[in-house]
Amino acid sequence: MQDTPPPPPPQYNQGQPYQAPPPNPLEPAFIIYITYIVGFVVPFAALGGLIYAYIERGKSPELDSHLTFQIRTFWWGVLMMVIGFVLTFVLVGFLVFLFWLVWTGIRIVTGLQLAQNRQPIRSVQVWGMKAV
């Protein structure tokens, strides 16, 4: 049985020094979306994301569109949670909690997709759920 020699290492940029890809200007928005996802399990993570969103405001219009969307997601979510808590005493609050879960999840996913594609949020559709 013959041993074949290993293939030669790939040539990257044909002798040029490695150049890192340009940084994503929407990286703070991406981080905040992740903290909101973690916030479903660890609620104070979402609060950390909110604080980070307020700190990062004013750096670029594209980033600000995501940060405003994220800040509104947090505060509307808090309002829904309070209403849901109050309505649990009449056994309707669980529907509000379910709506909040779906509403927040859709907002996070659509916003995260736009941030990964380096696109700003231009508008919100479908009862404030979907970022486009």
Could you explain how this protein is built, in words?
- The protein is mainly alpha-helical and 132 residues long.
- The protein is 59% helix and 3% strand.
- It has four helices and two strands; from the N terminus they run ααααββ.
- The chain has helices at residues 27-39, 43-56, 61-87, 93-116, and strands at 124-125, 130-131.
- The protein has a two-stranded antiparallel ribbon with strand order 1-2.
- β1 and β2 (130-131) form a beta hairpin.
- α1 packs parallel to α3 (61-87) and α3 (61-87) runs antiparallel to α4.
- The relative contact order is 0.12.
List the helices and strands and how they pair.
Layout: H1 27-39, H2 43-56, H3 61-87, H4 93-116, E1 124-125, E2 130-131
Antiparallel strand pairs: 1-2
Please summarize what this structure is.
With 132 residues, this protein is mainly alpha-helical.
Number of continuous helical runs: 4
Terminal residue distance: 59 Å
Beta-strand residue percentage = under 5%
Assign the structural class, choosing from mainly alpha, mainly beta, alpha/beta, alpha+beta, or little secondary structure. Answer: mainly alpha
Helix content: 55-70%
The pLDDT mean sits at 89
Largest sheet report? 2 strands, antiparallel
- Topology, number of strands: 2
Order of helices and strands: HHHHEE
Order of strands across the main sheet: 1-2
Pick out the low-confidence regions.
none
Gyration radius (Cα, Å) is 21 Å
Described by the principal axes of the CA atoms, the overall outline is: elongated
